[in-house]
User: Fold FecR family protein from Leeuwenhoekiella marinoflava.
Amino acid sequence: MDDKEIEKKLQDAWEETSKIQPKDKVEKSWQDFSSRTFNRKKKPIKPWHYAAAAVLVTFLSIGGLRMYNNSSFESSIASNINIIENPGNQNKTVYLPDGSLVELEPNSQLEFSDNFKKNRKVRVKGEAFFRVEKDKDHPFQVSCKTTTTTVLGTEFTVKEEISNSVSVQLYEGSIQLNVKDSINNWILSPGEKFVYNTNQLTITAFERFKDFNKKPLKEVINYIQTNYNYKITFPQELLQKQVTIRIRKKETLSNITQILSEIYNLNSYRDENIKEITFK
Assistant:
């Protein structure tokens, strides 16, 4: 293969990988590169020229991929995208760079950018619960299908339904909801559920607490074990004693443990390795 053939192939590759750039910019950059690489006096091409060209073509390809990624996840996000999936059968806890907590349900996916602290926007596929750190200068936004939930600091659940709808349940704080191509927005209060699909939009009340009114302590223990996937060991003589307690459905396990310890004047010991909490 002579010099002209090599130059022609490299130019074709250069233009192909640079389609996303303005044409005049591509032509100028090629002229600069070719003038340095291909001696017009037709001196023999050194082996390193091939390596240099390969490196440059590879670099342009990577740059093109990054620009595609940027535009594919909200035009306002100008950074690489992190994707976290939960293929298992139990909730997966994720801590975002700003300290916000996400409980990702099975078969769900979370996406956020590398510059998340300055651009607190995430996308959910499936279902996730959020406990958002407050930051008045950087609102927290969750996109799911055609809806966007905007918050400053609160606790809520976003769920992508099979019926091509999206539901949002607010446990604490306040959130604003927007729908694509709509000029309206909706403000939710704690205990309200927002459901949207292409045909209708509804806001209804839901029960965000679990109440135990003079129930055996054993029922409370069973509720905790079922919803938090921890084994709870309590003194046998207390299990049948009646208790009246209200538990917020998305309350942290640490807070529930502390409340029970204070009620019964016991110490609790948590073993993360075997997922067990023992009261003594």
In short: Helices lie at 3-17, 23-37, 47-72, 217-228, 253-264. The longest strand covers residues 209-216. Residues 3-72 form one domain.
